[in-house]
Specification:
Elements (H helix, E strand, L loop, with lengths): L2 E10 L1 H16 L16 E9 L3 H13 L4 E9 L2 E4 L3 H14 L26 H9 L8 E3 L12 E13 L5 E9 L4
Antiparallel strand pairs: 1-2, 1-6, 3-4, 3-6, 4-5, 6-7
């Protein structure tokens, strides 16, 4: 049975996707980005849980996600800091609650033993060293009180930006991961409840 390295994510509003793509592209052209972020095939996102998904369990994860989405209102978030090549999202109770529910409901379905063939990259593609760390350790090292909601820009340097930046989130998705744990393809997407 096939397995995929996956991420349960919130996808930010189009203006934030565009901003992250623009900042990354500027850095990429200067040789100051670890990977090119193109919203067409590497989506900026907020990770809620990473893991390894057996294909046979995909429909179960989709069902759990739909149940969670139907009772979770759309969120008005704010980018309040820039650190570690990322836009840090203010950890308001609503996003913390969603993260914990995702971990409690979906993590028992996932594994945490990623290997390169589980990533959505062409055969022969060389993944960055340490690619499996986040997938293999998200539940134990980056969940609950250690949860850090953020959007990775993968840009080594970022210009001064006026903060905070408002970010409405309605899209809740399951993504197949690519290099640098980017969201390469959307396997399933639903919408948070209308607030």
């Amino acid at each position: 049975m096939a397995k995929k390295a996956v991420d349960v994510v919130l996808l930010p509003s189009d203006d934030i996707i565009h901003l992250v793509g623009k900042l990354n592209m500027e850095a990429w052209r200067r040789g100051q980005a670890t990977i090119e972020i193109n919203p067409a095939y590497r989506l900026p996102h907020i990770s809620l849980l990473m893991g390894v998904l057996d294909d046979e369990h995909t429909s179960l994860v989709q069902e759990k996600m739909k149940e969670i989405a139907d009772k979770t209102p759309a969120m008005h978030l704010a980018i309040n800091k820039i650190e570690n090549k990322s836009f840090t999202i203010e950890k308001i109770p609503e996003i913390q609650k969603l993260h914990e529910e995702v971990v409690n409901e979906i993590n028992p379905i996932l594994g945490h033993e990623a290997s390169k063939e589980m990533y959505a990259e062409p055969q022969g593609y060389t993944l960055y060293q340490g690619f499996e760390y986040w997938v293999n350790n998200f539940d134990t090292h980056h969940s609950f009180e250690r949860f850090w909601p953020h959007i990775s820009t993968h840009a080594n340097t970022l210009p001064d930006i006026q903060l905070p930046i408002a970010c409405k989130v309605t899209r809740f998705a399951l993504c197949h991961l690519g290099d640098h744990n980017t969201c390469r393809t959307i396997l399933y997407e639903t919408t948070l409840a209308t607030s």
